[in-house]
Each structure stands twice: as C-alpha cells, then as structure tokens.
Amino acid sequence: MSGKPVNENSKNEQLEQYRTDDTGKHLTTNQGVKVSEDEFSLKAGVRGPTLMEDFHFREKMTHFDHERIPERVVHARGFAAHGEFQVYESMKEYTKAKFLQDPAVKTPVFVRFSTVVGSRGSAETVRDARGFATKFYTEEGNYDLVGNNIPVFFIQDAIKFPDLVHSIKPEPHNEMPQASAAHDTFWDFVANNQETAHMVMWAMSDRAIPRSLRMMEGFGVHAFRFVNEEGKARFVKFTWKPLLGTHSLVWDEAQKIAGKDPDFHRRDLWEAIENGDYPEYELGVQIIEEEDEFNFDFDILDATKLWPEEEIPLKIIGKMTLNRNVGNVFAETEQVAFHPGHVVPGIDFSNDPLLQGRLFSYTDTQLIRLGGPNFHELPINRPVCPFHNNQRDGYSRQTINTSQVAYHRNSLANNTPAPASPAQGGYQHYQEKVEGRKVRARSDSFKDHFSQAALFWNSMSEPEKKHIIEAFSFELGKVMNESVRQQVVDMFANVNVELAAAFAQNIGAVPPTSGGSGVTKSSPALSQENKVKKPETRKVGVLIDKDFSADEVQQVLSELNSKGIQTAIVSTQLGNVTAADGTELQVDFTFSTSHAVLFDALYAVGGKGENKQFKTEASNFVNEAFMHYKAIGATQEGKKLLEDTMILSPGVVIQEDGSSFAESFIEAITAHRHWDRQVV
C-alpha cells in the first residue's frame, strides 16, 4: 500500500474503464466478434428449424434470460449517487482510521437510499423505514456505514430478523399488501414482541414518510468502537444530518404521490444532482468512554435504544456531498454490495447482538444475489487500493492471478502475500476481555421496552403527535383481527395512555384506563419541528393563464430563483403561455401531467381570460395544497382562486399594495408546513 491520500477522482477513473457508449459502433458478440445479422436466427432453410450452432442467438438469449438478479429480500427498492466526504478536523484522538485524519483529503463515496419492505417496483413514498448506506472508498480499503433513517430497530437480536421480515412482507396466502405494514401479521408480531415498541413509534411518525432523500437523517443504529493509535477504544454511534433540514410529507399527500409519481424520491434526487443542487450531509458522532458504558438508564448496546443527544452530545466531524448520478442503475445501484463488516483500522464492533448477526448475514446475502464470492470484483464494489490474498476462482472471477502459490505459509513466493503488522496498516481487532458461559439468553438490561418509546412521544410537537395517532389509526384500521387490534392498544398503553386511548377509539378497540411508562423527560433533538428550515431547492408550481402581467410575474420568479427555489409553470396546455404585453413563458406541465402534491408550494397567478378549465383545475390545485398545509402565494387574477376561508390563513400570502410579496412568500415556503392552519 502506497500510503498516499486517495485522489477524489480515483474511484471515478477506476470506473471509467468499465463504462462504454455503444453509439456509432458495430454490433459484436460478448467475445468481440462482429455480427452480420441481428434480425433472424440461423435456420435450416427459410422455414426450417433454428440450428443449435447459432452462437449469437444462444449468447443473446442466454444473457437476456439471466439479466435479472434476485432482488434484495429487504431494501429492494433503492436509488443511489456518487459523492465525496471530507473530515473537518483530524479525529486522531479517537480513531486511527486514515480517512478521518486529514481535512484536505476527499474520500470517494457511494450512497444507496432505499425503502425496506417493498419490492423493486413498489412506490417510494410508502410509510416505511429508509436505508441510508454509505460506501467510503478509502486508501485503507472500503468502509461501509450501513444504516437507516431511524436510529433504532424493531428487534434486539438478529436471530429474530427473519421473523420480523416474514411478518411485515405481503402475507403468503394472498401476497398482499405491497410495501405496507398495515396488515394482520405485522401487528401480530408487534403485539407479541414488545421490544418493537420504540421503532414502531418512529415508524408511525412523520420520519417514515420523508419529503426527500435529501432531507432525511441517517443513523448507523448500532454502537461501534473507535480505536486510536494507542489502542484506546471508545464506543461510537454515527449520524448523518442533512444540511437542508429534516422534513416529511403528510400521509394523504404521500399516498397520492405514490399514484401520481411512484418514482418521486429518486426523481427528486436525480434532478437535484443534475441541476447542481448537490445534497449535503454532515457526519456526526456520539462518543462514550468505555468506563461510562453502564452510566445510563438504558443499555448502550441495545439496538432498540437511541443515545439522546442531550445526554451524549453529537460532535459534527465532516461533510458528504453527493455530486454525480450513476451511469447505470443495474451495474451500480443494484450490484453494489454493502456490509457492516467492511471496516478499516480504527473502527471496530461492539457486542450488540443485532450487529453481530448482521456481520454474518450480509456476506451470505451477496453470495446468492451476486452469484458467488467474487462480488467484490464488480466495478462498483472494487476498492480504490490494491488487494492481494490467496482467495481464488469461483463464479465471475475477474482477477487473473499469475502467482504459482495460493496458500499461506510458503517458501516459493517468500511467504507472500504476507500479513501486515498494525504499524504497517494491518487491521487488528480490539482486544476486549470476554468471559462467560455459552447461553441462549439476553441481558436483563435489554428488558425495558417502553421508556424510550415514551421519550419519543414526549419529544413530539402537537402536530407530530396528531400524525402518530392518525398513523396508528390507519395501520390498525387495516387489521382484520379484533384480538390483534386490542393487543396493540394494550401494548401501547404502556407507552402513553392518551395515545393508546386516542387510536383505540378510531379502530373499535377498548380504550385503556391505566398504564403509562412514568417517563416524563423529552429530547428536543427528536422533533422535526426543531430542525433546520431552508427554502433552497423547494419546488413551487406557478399556475398561469394567458393575459397575465409579465413584469410582475418575472420579478417574483427571479426573487424565488435567487433563493435557490425551483419554479415550474403549470397551465392547461404545453407550449407557451402569453402575457398581456406579448411576453411568452414556456409551460413545463399541464394540470393533467402534474399535481399539487408534487410541489412544496403554489404561486397562483391566473390570467385575465375566461378560461373555465384553467379556473377549475387551478382551484383544485390550490385546495389540495391548502389541505396539506403548504405555502400558497397569490397575485393578480390568482387571488380569485382562493376561497374566503383561505385568505386569512397562515401560510397564504396575498399581494397587497406596498408590500413585499416575494419576501413574505419565501418566508412561508421556508416554514415547510403551516400546522396552525384550520383545515376542515
């Protein structure tokens, strides 16, 4: 290993040799033989049977038959992007990981976002946890931070993972519902495995329906270890914080988007990168000294528990920027292989039993998905540093090993490849003292299932609490078994009686009269209402009809665009819409090819004509946006599209003489939602 810093373009350059553009080229077989005919198979006579010797037909058909690889059992629906990571300051005090030492070094990364439950073709705005997996191509090898957008998980031990997934997937007798937890088997699992309580609270919250992958936090979930050059270890958890803030959809909006644009999240990410609005996330770490391991009212190794930021502060250590879209979704996004066991010197594991199980299952999964043990040789998975070992052969082997020996220890090759000492960069596991009997058991410190679920509830704003109640009501309203519904009510009475009673009434269950966890503390860091709010990259639909006032509209659009807000003209037909002075604006969408749910806000302009279709369609857009608590701005004839009840509502900005409409409208857009609006 050279020890040289990783060039930010090194991964791009490595991938470049595998990219090809077939435009203007002759057709060949996979062996490079030019093909003279691609319309007809080789036959014995023009009406005779196809001949087995037609190697081009056989190769073409065989490849087609095998184009699809098995989709992931979970996280099948995913999208990804390339980028880079830079640490803000050296973390030498805590870890010897080289990519966390030098602020001048840019480490290439590849990030895959995903839903958990649905199949590859499912919608993206479903209520679900989201995967947030990052592959760092470091000079010491690949490091994978494989996390979710929720900091905890349903279960404490990986042996229960197959049970969890079997319960939440479509039910086997009818293969329904797709990409949803709203059915009997999942909630039966929840009620009978009460360690799920905390994660379920997050899943019923707004965190489970993010506005954008660019506005979504990421968490490593597990406790890992940082180890420095002196061998001192500390427990660590990782968090990604989006610079645009953490924001969500509302449930009705999410359901409608699933029908209007099932690719909503990937389209949003793709277009942002193509537009140069590169998504940015800061990496934060929470660090616990080993001597403080047992100084908390929860077990720090329990994956159903988070580390409250108010108790264990989050230290921001670097920033990741996603700046390049993939060139081929299959070759990169589908074939990328993540594994929490892909670590570099300075990062080690804890005894979290869920993490310990994942260290086995991820490799096992890649073997079936990617056809054998050589998945690391696929371009997207190859490290940027060289790799040398005695592993040989197997499906899809790409390395051509020319050495005579493939074993350790040897004399023919002077005992190479040879292990590297820690001083030479060799990975050394942290030497933790371990002792005890072999048992199938779980520590008593893992038995509290409700305290942090109550902490989460206590930390929510009133609108967020309302949404959680509505989510429980919807999900359990889809459960047919009355006993399961009642069991869930009784279970969540242990979290908060008022919560359980509220959704019990909506699902025909008996409300609890007692219960509760007794937990009164809260964590303000958990509420999205306390997150950063920015107008940049928000999308505003501009509703315009002919004979509008061009100067005024262009000034407003200019001010919106100057704040990084994206605008799109919506009208009754494509082409151009003409202002009263003859100015033309290009129409981006018609009312039939777009929808109010696809925008963060609406700007109603209208026009002086008597276009009844425009007025009807535009009014529908405005009413939908109002119902979803979005900012609405109105000038000129657009004010006539507002109902009387809207005019004085929060987040509805009307142009008045002498007022700065654009400034007030931008402020309303920045707020994201206006929850104090009265929506009937």
Can you describe what's shown?
This protein is α/β, with parallel strands linked by helices and 680 residues long. Among the domains are: 78-152 and 209-377, Beta Barrel (Catalase HpII,  Chain A, domain 1), CATH 2.40.180.10; 450-529, Up-down Bundle (Hemocyanin, N-terminal domain); 533-670, Rossmann fold (3-Layer(aba) Sandwich). 26% of the residues lie in helices and 16% in strands. The protein contains 17 helices and 18 strands. It has helices at residues 10-16, 55-65, 161-168, 184-192, 197-203, 251-260, 264-274, 329-334, 353-369, 451-459, 462-477, 482-492, 497-506, 550-562, 612-627, 644-647, 661-670; strands at residues 78-87, 107-115, 130-138, 141-148, 218-219, 224-227, 233-242, 280-289, 315-325, 347-349, 539-544, 566-571, 575-578, 584-587, 589-590, 601-606, 631-634, 652-654. The strands form 3 sheets. Strands 1, 2, 3, 4, 5, 6, 7, 8, 9 and 10 form a 10-stranded antiparallel beta sheet that branches. The protein has a 6-stranded parallel beta sheet with strand order 15-12-11-16-17-18, sandwiched between helices. The protein has a two-stranded antiparallel sheet with strand order 13-14. β17 (631-634), α16 (644-647) and β18 (652-654) form a beta-alpha-beta unit. The mean pLDDT is 94.
